[in-house]
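Researcher: Let's run the pair from yesterday's discussion. Sequence first, then tokens, for each.
Model: Starting with the first of the pair.
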Amino acid sequence: IACVLSGLPESIIAAACARSGQRVLHVDSRNYYGGNWASFSFSGLLSWVKENQQKTDISDECEDWRKLILENEEVISLSKKDKTIQHVEDFCFGDQDSAENVEEAGALPKLPAFGASDADGVAQESEKECTPMENTLPEVESQEPEKATGTEPTSTVERNDPEITSENESSHSMPFSESTPETGSAPSESSAQGPKKITYAQIVREGRRFNIDLVSKLLYSRGLLIDLLIKSNVSRYAEFKNATRILAFREGKVEQVPCSRADVFNSRQLTMVEKRMLMKFLTFCLDYEQHPEEYQDYENSTFAQFLRTQKLTPSLQHFILHSIAMVSETDSSTLEGLQATKKFLQCLGRYGNTPFLFPLYGQGEIPQCFCRLCAVFGGIYCLRHSVQCLVVDKESGRCKAIVDHFGQRISANYFIVEDSYLSESICTNVCYRQISRAVLITDQSVLNTDTEQQVSILTVPPVDVGKPAVCVIELCSSTMTCMKETYLVHLTCPSTKTAREDLEPVVQKLFNLNAEKETENEELEKPKVLWAVYFNMRDSSGVEKMSYDGLPSNVYVCSGPDSALGNDCAVKQAETIFHEMFPTEEFCPPPPNPEDIIYDEDEIAPEESGFSNSPETKPESSTEENSSGGSTAVKKEDNEE
């Protein structure tokens, strides 16, 4: 299997293939993992911004590769220029000159400043000051937690991976508490006096404490990605923090939305009558399929129109539409709204009072976790390794090999290519959507409470009819994505214009963009934006393989990130492609536990002496490496938890 680019779908496919015993080569022309799913330190993001603003063409490093093509073969050239990012604009709202000679703390000059690896160099230093959340995914079967070491494709600077502890899931109680050492404490002296003034120089100096995602997503607690992380045991490579609150923007104000039964009945913003109305409607949504008579007359109507027919006040309709179902007011049907509401409610209570989890150190950790699983089971990774072309046999029409930028010909049976690598000649019939993105660094939360450490999700409804709603995710420093006393805010919506045109009106509603002039009381209450970047990202999800002209049958195309809040699209795509290649294989089965591995007698002797000539066995350095023997059997006890 040859995978080109290390985005989330490609990384999942690579891990699944390696786990099923296939030989996998995973190459990426970039010098960081994740593609458009990556996370960056602040300096890394500045480099990424500069690179995408310049957009220089890359010339062939080696023209001799054309001599490798035989007479009965033809080539499909791949794109050498990434066109998935457009309209990149960044703004500093502080004194940029003050940071002219400031260096990033802990920076290693000889190493690249790209990718989630930038978080690695300061992880131990960060842990001294910011204790991360201990929220972890429960494993299917309880195991002794072990730290994984060995082959690690996730970083250029070493970091001790967060240890994953296993907890049994209970339908009646939360597996873990939402509180952290910082959560639930009294407001600090600084917050009582207002936010501290953060300078641009401080942001640059503390740049390695930022892990800024290119794509902003959350994990549904009962979504496909969480199920896959648990099933494959990849969850041991990451830690997660529960999203602590759901917010709504109504009548010019941000307010918290009650989600769980306890939240509803403890809410002071709802009357007793509204509480009963809301609980009755949410109970109906949980098993709406059993009561088709309630909604079948409105199947051709929008969900917003259906809500108006129910006994719900305007404020309840707003909460359900924008903060619970989180669907479009004009485009989403009644069934789509009911399905989204049911999914939201089913995810409540598994890990906390909201349906969502966020990975510590950013969304960019997730592709790297699957890359690591692939590497543990023998996958080979090459960054800064571009591919010139696909080599196709004229008679069979199948792809036989790729040729890299060194002029090397690499043969494989199957090829996984990310959409951005395909040239315009292949994509003539493809119509792409766009995503508008903005990332802000702010000095305080959009809704201040006694607790500073909040992970919030807010949906801002559109002002004009036909425009999309904007999803806002606000991250605090305990997510390990920003420095202390700052917040990282992600804004996302389907594009109608450039990202700045789509999102700046929402930014102006929620934040103060004028850091110097503070004359109006309303502006004083708003969080200040310290730095911002806007960009448009290509959304290639939903493009059928038949839309690509002249693509061989054994070449599979993965899409980049979509505009949805969850990751279901990437997981579905990865599983579909895997089963097209290997219909009889299980998708990402769990690796065996070390204590369950039974070695053949001829393997025991060399292992006891500390040496092994068997390519199937691995050094005794990690849980996963011990479990990767191809000739081993797994024994599980019936009474094993």
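Model: Moving on to the second of the pair.
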Amino acid sequence: QVLLVFAEEDEQSNGFRWACDKAGFRCNIARTPQSALECFLEKHHDIIIIDHRHSRYFDAEALCRSIRTTKASENTVIICVVQRHTDREESSILPLISAGFTRRYVENSSRMACYNELIQLEFGQVQAQFKLRACNSLFTALEKSQEAIEITSEDHVIQYVNPAFETMMGYQIGELIEKELTEVPINEKKADFLDTINSCIKIGKEWQGMYYAKKKNGDSIQQNVKILPVIGQGGKIRHYVSISRLCNDNNKVEKTCECIQAESQTDTQTCRHKDMRKGSLDVRSTTSRGSDGISQRRRSSMARVHSMTIEAPITKVINIINAAQESSPMPVAEALDRALEILRTTELYSPQLGTKDEDPHTSDLVGGLMTDGLRRLSGNEYILSAKQTHQVAGSLSSPISLNDIPPRITQAMENEEQWDFDIFELEAATHKRPLVYLGLKIFARFGICEFLNCSESTLRSWLQVIEANYHSSNSYHNSTHSADVLHATAYFLSKERVKQTLDPIDEVAALIAATVHDVDHPGRTNSFLCNAGSELAILYNDTAVLESHHAALAFQLTTRDGKCNIFKNMERNEYRTLRQVIIDMVLATEMTKHFEHVNKFVNSINKPLAALEENGNNGDGESIKTVLRSPENRILIKRMLIKCADISNPCRPREQCIEWAGRISEEYFAQTDEERRQGLPVVMPVFDRNTCSIPKSQLSFIDYFIIDMFDAWDAFADLPNLMEHLNNNIKYWKGLDGRNLRVLRPPP
């Protein structure tokens, strides 16, 4: 949350207000010191920006001091806006620091300058304040701990002891802080005991054992002690934490504590070589940015790129390396660059998944779409596809010509280059055969026959064969879905940023992959097939079962008959390249690697492009080209393109979105019915046709899979119309859910 304190509205205040809106920060404006103080005490803002340019309105430094006297301001960042003076020497910032300001902002009403300032504050001082808030909680825990805790510096200077330590040793904290350790551990049975401890902790290992220590009054007490080195800046030991438990005369820890038997273990005590935890505290686990942070879930696309919440462990590693590069000498920075390149091109991006808020709809969607099923013990088998007879070119009716398309179908395809194109109108006009007609038109527009060196009749035969092997009995995974994904793919290929990135062979591969990506889909999920022990699941080892089948069958259908073999005239190496791209894109539609693909796209493409733009390198074509045109990044872009095309239903106009939601729900209902009939595990129990809330299921799917992915894709390809439809559809489903309606549409 941000509080702007400006006596009058001007370009500077408007610049910060715009920046708050763009960054998604909640913003309040105060005109007087009194209203500013009242507003702050009510809202507890994270950032306060005070106008210091015009002293005739109010005393900015006095206001800052007033705010700093409040307990609520302890973790608040306060910025001072000062005038820009070009004709005199730079003034000292010390009076502002003394007044309580965190930093100074020299007036600059540029909107982007204001926005950059806020983003830097968020990822700098504000995040530091979040950590300090967390530290308060941690110190509270230390203060209440029944174990005696002592923290010293690397030079064994005492920096902290808790009340339990004071009680045990008889000292007051003031007698110990900043004092060197003069009382060393004394073990009467082993002279080199101290050397044993030091040899362990100095190499970063934890030591645990028993020794005798002297209290302030001279009494000797036996303690069970654990000493832990803490790795800090530069990878060196910066602190030692000692945790002690008092033992009684029988060498047992008092109350609930357990102690190692001194007689049996003191003489043989050695280092317990437990690996130290090198990672630092993830403050987000103890502070909720959703409740009191300045970031809200929804931001403008470029801002969202910097705060993606899908953060795998490897993403954290990359962020640490990026931060280290800023202060590293050139050879080190270059070495880290090479390390980053390795990290960005290996399979290290899958996040540690958890469901959001334990929502059953989300849990079932994740279980149904992102796992390979629960192994079952019954002997039932679900037979699918492996022995089915597939349609081939010779068994189909003679293909139509592009010039012979009936007027109604031609009219239905008039606006196929627009995002709002209605695929269901084409489905009706073609009697559920939209793929052949739309495919002919889109493939002609992109010059696919010319690239493949094949005739139009071969292409027509191929489209007919592929469409014939989609199951028209499926409510969702039929040739209309394939045509819809083909349309979305063609639309994305027409976007300027995508055209700059991909080669003609990539465009051809994308359109073919979209056409075949669900061919022979049985209307059941991978989890169902694995649970049922289907022949396909056995053939593909329960891994990407359907996606592997779609890709393999597409090439089988294409190459088994020369009449529909669109690849027959291609040069061998070019065909192999095209085939690999098609297979890779079809396999990318498998949902178990959804977050891996999105994570890679964000970290390898979105963030580098955003950094170039924020650093004012919009015109640096070579830098942008380097990001866009690297082979690894082009693969990521193609995967993201087909993934977004495949599940773009929530970004379609409302009526289309509703229709698709009804169709996928019906397909899931049918699967649940069959699972119960066959006694299989029900992988998505919420999809019970008698109890399911379709609005809730749609909201869960959108929240878990769609929002982050399309934020990233929009930031790359610039798709404001899609994001507007997405927001409208979210509001629609929330409206139904808010009325406790479980159906697609409200009653008349």
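Researcher: Give me one sentence on the second I can quote.
Model: Residues 400-738 form a domain with the Catalytic domain of cyclic nucleotide phosphodiesterase 4b2b fold (CATH 1.10.1300.10).
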